[in-house]
Amino acid sequence: MSISRTDRPALILVDIQKGFDDIAYWGGQRNNPDAEENAGELLQLWREHRLPIFHIKHCSSKPESLLNEANAGNDFKDLVRPIHDEPIIKKNVNSAFIGTDLKERLDNLEITKLVMVGLTTDHCISTTVRMAGNLGFDTFLVSDATATFNKKGLEGQDYPAELIHATALASLNHEFARIVTTEFLKQNI
Description:
Elements: E1 10-14, H1 23-26, H2 35-48, E2 53-58, E3 88-91, H3 102-108, E4 113-119, H4 121-134, E5 138-147, E6 151-152, E7 158-159, H5 161-172, E8 178-180, H6 182-188
Helix pairs in contact: 4-5
């Protein structure tokens, strides 16, 4: 699976929202502290080449969630704030394809290749990437522009964020997506 600017791939920025800055709320530790900066670099690259961009925003239905629309945490982080007419798609489940018109928008633009960045690797990124692969999109997941948090195991054991991130990527690689880096895309787009 290859990618270039002539493919007109869409950049899908998933849930890069201020609510994820509260690391204690999400698990106490996070990997990949440069994920948003890398996503921002790719966003600038896509803007420079006038390639399709879609901003996905998680709007939790739980009033106490940091990602609920009534809370400041629902806002996009400044590094990836949408500008002009860049589409914003709101979701309230893990997949950016469920309950949204994302697939229809991609189909209308005849987009076949997707580049995914965002939060969190093992939840909304994984679910959206899996669905994209199942829907027939050639999907590229950017390992250093995604991140996650520590998780508690069934027996209360701590699983570090880097392990959760690595196993999520390993589960997706070659089955649902090609795992790439920011640098790879900067050289190919």
